[in-house]
Write a structure and sequence with these properties.
The structure holds three protein chains of three kinds.
Chain A: E1 2-11, E2 21-31, E3 36-40, H1 47-55, E4 62-67, E5 70-71, E6 79-82, H2 94-98, H3 100-104, H4 109-122, H5 138-151, E7 156-160, H6 168-184, E8 188-192, H7 196-202, E9 205-209, E10 216-221, H8 236-255
Chain B: H1 2-29, H2 38-51, H3 53-86, H4 88-103, H5 110-117, H6 121-145, H7 149-157, H8 162-199, H9 204-214, H10 218-246
Chain C: H1 23-53, H2 61-74, H3 78-108, H4 110-125, H5 132-139, H6 143-167, H7 171-179, H8 184-221, H9 226-236, H10 240-268
Classes of the chains: A alpha/beta, B mainly alpha, C mainly alpha.
């Protein structure tokens, strides 16, 4: 379980003497085990910052962030991140990229390759093990990123607008694939997005954030049945929540200069 | 496809033939008896390579300086570049010096080096090193800084230690630029070697050149120069091939 | 609660110095301050070692500055400087003319490119100083040798950059011009020339730097005039301070000429990104 209490994050800019920027202010929320939470908010609301704090990539001074009651002080084996721009090593092939996390943690070569091949199959890239990232489409590259994250068997998946850099058709396919994967093994997921459809489609709950300094405006339940299929987009509940999100986001955007 | 390649080589040969004819034309009209014809130069080159042991001896002596000097510049330059690329404050301290050394020609300092280290191998090695080191350092640094921060963050997210980040992300990521620096540095090192040979004619190829010109054997002078040009082109082509192998995945960010 | 990931990348801003320093000083330090301090520190170290070690080849930095100032005041180097600069300008001008012409032809006409590319490339990567003795043999101890060396140093980088510049002009612009009925000459002057200017200037800047190197390297070898000759002479006299001072003069020539080309570039390519 992820617990965030009274978290504030300030970015100081030293070289031009301006006041520090308050990115997050008094963030308070919880993510239960095996829950899929999507996070949405206007640009600059600090959602990426929040994710990186939970991932242990940036430090924080005020507040508490803990995983299963243990405070977050850095990256850890129970969490894995999927990045918006894939962050694949261009010089390594698909297999080399997927085994990366395992190798860094000291898993023996044979074992890590075996596990990697398994996951490459799961994400549907069997046969592409020896290809380089530049030979793959965006959607395929992100699937490699996903396989890499899953390979280390994390409890928690932190996904930073993972489909943001892809075209709409690829995005929709990957959403469905992600849902299928999640059905098989229900990890705890924190998923950042700027798409309302995506937020409602994927999440058990949607966390709506305010513009900078980012606060949690509301946690919205998504009472749609699992497993979710594309049809769910036509259901009244879906449309209602989506509209609600849009109303709020539009108001927040309008209020900004 | 085949036809175009034939046409390419035909036109290249034509340019070569034109250049040679121009040379011969120029010679027949000039008063300069010191200039060999193309054919004489070619014959002299053949002689040098196959019948003149002193040529190979001289080549060996001169290349000693090249080898040791280049090795020194690699061994010192790459770590400096890695450090400058990774540690921001180190970079800022080195930056003004690198900027100055980049623009400043090394040649005027050769007399100072001679005062300090004499006329022997030490000077020659040091001068070659000076010529090469700046470009190696700068390109290494550019390579390290060019590594996508997202990749480093990704590695951190998997709990990689600093050493692991270096070994698995920074060095492989910077390798193409490092090799570009090695290639450019090699060219510079050869320049240094030649400058040294021509200024300090005590040994090696410089001495040979002096002898040949003293004896008015201009065809051999030209042949020796041609031999060095060929050596340079061969070494650099090898380096380029290596570079292409290492850097097949990367765009070109080289300096120099 | 502080967490500490592995060392920051070089792109992040420096950690703030102690809060004991006043804001203005801190801002300057993280602005240009550190570089300036580093240079001054270097000069001081040089000064220190110069006095302490008393080596013939390492005069204290102040001596070098002294020699430099003396040059300016007494005008001792004036005629040499003049020779050097004249050679530089003539050589560079010639390489610009040659470089732009060949580069433009290679950029525009594939046949030309294919015929000359391996030679241009070979001459570009080959250390240009190797041609110095050849020119010496042809032109003897004359200005023509020096200028020829500068031309070899500088031309090929200009050719390559110009060719690339023209080749990579957005083809849709050329297409557009054709659709309005432009003739070859017009396409060249109205489209290719302006569009390729940024990259061409990059080549010119690099060429300028190479020309300065060619100037001094050539003069060291064919040392009868110019700053190179002076460097050799002072070297023979074991006057290290003066040699360093000459190096400083050449450095300044390099920086100033680069700045001039850069300024020209900024003016003519203001529209570029």
């Amino acid at each position: 379980m992820i617990r965030v209490k009274a978290l504030s994050k300030e970015f100081g800019t030293v070289d031009n003497g301006n006041a520090a920027v308050l990115a997050l202010s008094d963030i308070d929320f919880e993510v239960r085990d095996n829950e899929f939470v999507t996070v949405i908010g206007p640009s600059g609301c600090g959602k990426t910052t929040l994710l990186r704090i939970i991932a242990g990539l940036i430090p924080y001074q005020q507040g508490e962030v803990s995983i299963d009651s243990r405070p977050v002080t850095g990256p850890g084996p129970e969490r894995a991140v999927v990045f918006q721009n894939f962050a694949l090593m261009p010089w390594a092939d698909v297999l080399g990229n997927v085994t990366f996390g395992l190798e860094v943690r000291g898993v023996a070569k044979g074992e890590s390759e075996g596990r990697a091949r398994e996951l490459i199959k799961v994400v549907g890239l069997e046969g592409f093990e020896r290809r380089l990232p530049k030979e793959l489409s965006g959607g395929m590259q992100q699937r490699v990123g996903l396989a890499r994250a899953l390979a280390v068997n994390p409890q928690i998946l932190l996904m930073d607008e993972p489909f943001g850099a892809l075209d709409e058709q690829t995005r929709r396919l990957l959403q469905e694939q992600l849902l299928q994967l999640w059905e098989r093994e229900r990890k705890t997921v924190v998923f950042i997005t700027h798409s309302m459809e995506e937020a409602v489609m994927l999440g058990d709950r949607v966390m709506l954030m305010t513009p900078r300094p980012g606060k949690v405006k509301e946690m919205i339940d998504v009472p749609l049945n699992r497993p979710r299929s594309r049809d769910v987009e036509k259901s009244p509940a879906f449309i209602e929540i989506k509209e609600y999100l849009w109303e709020n986001l539009r108001a927040m955007q309008a209020a900004q200069p | 496809m085949k036809k175009t390649t034939f046409r390419d080589w035909a036109s290249r040969l034509a340019v070569f033939a034109a250049a040679v004819s121009l040379w011969e034309l120029f010679l027949s009209h000039s008063q300069n008896f010191l200039l060999p014809t193309f054919s004489h130069t070619a014959i002299a080159l053949f002689n040098l390579v196959f019948q003149e042991p002193r040529f190979w001896e001289a080549l060996y002596i001169s290349n000693q300086a090249l080898l040791v000097g280049y090795a020194a510049s690699v061994v010192i330059g790459i770590p400096m570049g890695l450090l400058a690329g990774r540690v921001h404050n180190m970079d800022r301290i080195l930056n003004p010096y690198l900027g100055v050394l980049l623009v400043m020609p090394v040649a005027p300092l050769i007399p100072v080096v001679i005062i300090a280290l004499g006329l022997g191998l030490a000077s020659r090695v040091f001068i070659v090193m000076l010529f090469a080191i700046v470009f190696i350092t700068i390109n290494t640094r550019a390579g390290v800084r060019g590594v996508e921060p997202a990749l480093i963050e990704m590695a951190q997210s998997f709990g990689a230690s600093e050493a692991q980040i270096w070994r698995r992300i920074i060095v492989p990521g910077a390798l193409p630029a490092i090799f570009a620096g090695l290639r450019i540095g090699l060219g510079r090192a050869i320049t240094g070697m030649v400058m040294v040979e021509l200024l300090l004619v005590a040994s090696g190829l410089g001495r040979l050149l002096l002898e040949f010109s003293g004896r008015m054997q201009s065809d051999f002078v030209f042949a020796t120069l041609l031999a060095v040009i060929i050596e340079a082109l061969v070494l650099l082509s090898i380096m380029q091939a290596l570079e292409r192998k290492v850097a097949s995945w990367a765009p070109d960010i080289s300096v120099g | 609660m502080r967490s500490m990931p592995a060392a920051e990348t070089a792109t992040k801003t420096a950690a703030p110095k102690t809060s004991l320093l006043p804001g203005a000083l801190r801002r300057w330090l993280t602005g240009y301050g550190l570089e300036v301090v580093a240079l001054i520190a270097g000069a001081l170290v040089w000064e220190g070692f110069g006095w302490m070690l008393g080596l013939q080849w390492l005069p204290p930095f102040s001596r070098v500055l002294e020699a430099f100032v003396q040059f300016i005041q007494s005008g001792a180097i004036l005629s040499n400087l003049q020779s050097s600069l004249t050679g530089l300008l003539l050589g560079f001008a010639l390489s610009v003319v040659l470089g732009l012409s060949l580069g433009a032809l290679m950029g525009r006409y594939r046949a030309v490119e294919r015929a000359f590319d391996i030679y241009v490339h070979a001459l570009f990567v080959c250390p240009s100083i190797l041609f110095a003795p050849i020119f010496f043999a042809i032109f003897g101890l004359s200005d023509a040798s020096r200028i020829a060396i500068i031309v070899v140093y500088s031309t090929f980088v200009i050719v390559i950059n110009t060719a690339t510049a023209i080749r990579t002009v957005d083809p849709s612009l050329v297409e557009m011009a054709c659709s309005f009925g432009c003739r070859e000459r017009q396409i060249f002057t109205r489209i290719l020339l302006p569009a390729s200017l940024p990259l061409v200037f990059a080549g010119l800047r690099l060429g300028m730097g190479r020309a300065v190197k060619g100037m001094i390297n050539g003069e060291m070898l064919i040392a009868f005039v110019g700053l190179g000759a002076l460097a050799q002479r002072y070297g023979a006299q074991f006057d290290a301070a003066k040699v360093f001072a000459i190096a400083m003069v050449v450095l300044i020539i390099g920086l100033v000429s680069n700045a001039i080309v850069q300024a020209l570039e900024n003016r003519l390519t203001r529209w570029a990104g």
